[in-house]
Amino acid sequence: MVKIGVLGLQGAIREHIRSVEAAGAEGIIIKYKEQLADIDGLIIPGGESTTMRRLIDKYDFFEALVDFGKQGNPIFGTCAGLILLANDIAGQDDAHLSLMDMKVERNAFGRQRESFEAEVDIKGVADHFEAVFIRAPYIIEVGSEVEVLATYQDKIIAAKQDHYLCSAFHPELTDDHRLTEYFVKMVEK
Amino acid sequence: MSKIGTDRVKRGMAEMQKGGVIMDVVNAEQAKIAEEAGAVAVMALERVPSDIRAAGGVARMADPTIVEEVMNAVSIPVMAKARIGHIVEARVLEAMGVDYIDESEVLTPADEVYHLNKRDYTVPFVCGCRNLGEAARRIGEGTSMLRTKGEPGTGNIVEAVRHIREVNAQVRKLVNMNEDEVMTYAKELGAPYEVLLEIKENGRLPVVNFAAGGVATPADAALMMQLGADGVFVGSGIFKSDNPANFARAIVEATTHYEDYDLIAKVSKGIGTAMKGLEISTIAPEERMQDRGW
Asked: Contact B96/B75 with Cβ under 8 angstroms?
């Protein structure tokens, strides 16, 4: 059984662990960078990206996370996790981990009252997937190495680049585990 | 075909706040300090609870100018308080686009019988609770998030501890109960039967439950997390301390690593003096905010 970590600094950690376990892998909460050595893949959960970034810096996680990705370990970022993976954030000078070649916009669908759920098709993963968007970002543009997996109203909401996967929505908030299963398969390879 | 304001979207927003600290702020400058310190959201207010307590009189929804100023200052979610049962204050805050409304006993209640029907709104709500009866009634009315009431503005954690222990003990009792005992328990608690059944089935509350009402130090925040809170609200504790930026950062760290005592010791060093606290027994019964709500 592969071991999948969920970055445990802040956000929807318990839900991702539940989803990972439903997808047939072992879920481990990662609170310290040393734990990265024990896992085969990592999920960066939804939460507040500015808060997570502060805690990543505080606990010296930054280099460790970048190295973890560059060594070829799969990483899946959802919502705030997607923002952390991008190498360009609209309206900000600096990006975070910069592991995926894409430009993203924070809170792009609006504030909480505009948050919504909708059915989307994720290419090669799942049709009619119930996607929950909460103050969600979207991807404005992607580099040539990035494959677009899903769009909603012409906005990019899921993408893959080599061993990196990201979604603007929250697959952990429903009982539909197909996207997490897809990530578990990426890790198994 | 998209749907807004569903339970999943409203409760999900609170799930994203878990493990985080939500800080009371009264202007843009404080909001920025909070965001910089790593707050997951801010609560925009006209006065923090300890000042509300000191000022007396009727406490109402904040001036929309302040709420708007805070919304423009930060990119993290902004919450604001409406009086219990004040339909129009809640609608005004919703219209302004605040991300969460606290139907709060810190403000003077507008209705001494009924809470808001929170299912009617697109914006999610957080409500206070002291026990499972209050928690289940608020869930029945459609709250998407709970918090302990504690005793706001005191800097004294004792009431928040009492409330989280009570709620969690009652949830445990319910989960271990025979199903044929649940109706009578619902009667005793004054709780909706269906909500109790759902809690029994899932083994936990269907919404997150944060700590609030008395958190003044990093150790207080970590204590509440250990007692099972999903996150922490800090009202007066930050901006009534000596050094708000230091306190804010230290409370965020202690909340993340609530079982790492070396770390809590480290972040608690030299951060200045906490807010002056209030002994609960010195508060006149009619001034106890936690008794507001029905």
From this structure: no
